[in-house]
Amino acid sequence: MSYGGYVKCNCYEEGKTSEPPFKEFVRIIPDYGPALKYPEHIKNTSRMNTKFMDWRSSACPHSDFNYASIRFNDFPGFESVYEYIAEKKYDEDFECVNLFPILYQYLPDGYEDKIPIIDVLPFMNELLAFQEITEKRKFVVFNGMNPDKIIAVTNYGYPRVIAYDAKYAGGIDDNGFFITKAFHGHIDRNYEMNIVFRSSFFSQSTHLVYGFVITDISTGKEFITSFHILQQIMEGNIPDIKKKLIFRVSIEEIPITRLCRDFIDSLIKLCAASLETGNPVVWY
């Protein structure tokens, strides 16, 4: 599973950076840029590596030499793109039609770790064609107070874990939000037998001792957890961890393209950056 994508800049190769530390050891790594390669007699390199990485972060206008980059967790519908394309590979008679062959091959859940520059334009053209799809699907949608901003989503009929600790997992399914007993977020097909909390309209607030209190707004039923519901979704970058939050879970029939519009737009921007620099789009 990939977590994001980037396109490397050419600033170092074009002499547009500040002078790197330990320049005599600098080598160019494809799809990464300048890196240090030491001779065998140099053993203690930790301080040198730290100084060099500090230089990489500010050597040119593109932090860490990334001309453009995206994180997939910023786009709640990104998983649905590949699922839809994989489904459309075959027709009703299971004949291979593969409507989006380049997307199928190179999307980050596919088989490749990057898009070679020769295939970037065909990839972008298929993204543009994907944007024209009008088909609607039924999704389980997880929102905050703003109903137009989707926080997380899963296909109807497929539960998804969105937060967890060592003993419990919080997730969404066709019946709303749930907390079930689970080992480090792993649930099986019998997860419903171990559900300890269920709600479609609930709040989260801080608990003075144990972490967080999840409260069903209709009944007042509470459950105390050690995990913040947005911890995994936002990769720990929660602006105000103590703020009380309101959440809703609903079943909605919406166009597949509305769900992943921002993700597709960001992929198109990555492709444009690739064509501008001549460097591939790399998944990480």
Structure description:
By secondary structure, this protein is an alpha+beta fold. The protein folds into three domains: 4-68, no CATH class; 71-135 and 257-283, no CATH class; 137-254, no CATH class. It has helices at 46-58, 78-87, 101-106, 117-130, 256-259, 261-277; strands spanning 4-8, 26-29, 33-36, 66-71, 114-115, 136-143, 150-155, 160-164, 168-173, 176-181, 195-199, 201-207, 211-216, 222-225, 245-255, 281-283. A six-stranded antiparallel sheet has the order 7-6-15-12-13-14. Strands 4-1-16-5 form a four-stranded antiparallel sheet. Strands 8-9-10-11 form a four-stranded antiparallel sheet, with no helix packed on it. Strand 12 (201-207) and strand 13 (211-216) form a beta hairpin. Helix 4 packs antiparallel against helix 6. The mean pLDDT is 89.
The Cα radius of gyration reads: 23 Å
End-to-end distance, in Å? 9 Å
* Helix content, binned percent: 10-25%
Total number of beta strands? 16
Number of domains: 3
**What is the global morphology?**
globular
Category by helix and strand content? alpha+beta
Secondary-structure element order, N to C:
EEEHEHHEHEEEEEEEEEEHHE
Please give the largest β-sheet: 6 strands, antiparallel
What is the arithmetic mean of pLDDT?
89
Summarize the structure.
By secondary structure, the chain is an alpha+beta fold.
Topology of this protein?
Layout: E1 4-8, E2 26-29, E3 33-36, H1 46-58, E4 66-71, H2 78-87, H3 101-106, E5 114-115, H4 117-130, E6 136-143, E7 150-155, E8 160-164, E9 168-173, E10 176-181, E11 195-199, E12 201-207, E13 211-216, E14 222-225, E15 245-255, H5 256-259, H6 261-277, E16 281-283
Antiparallel strand pairs: 1-4, 1-16, 2-3, 5-16, 6-7, 6-15, 8-9, 9-10, 10-11, 12-13, 12-15, 13-14
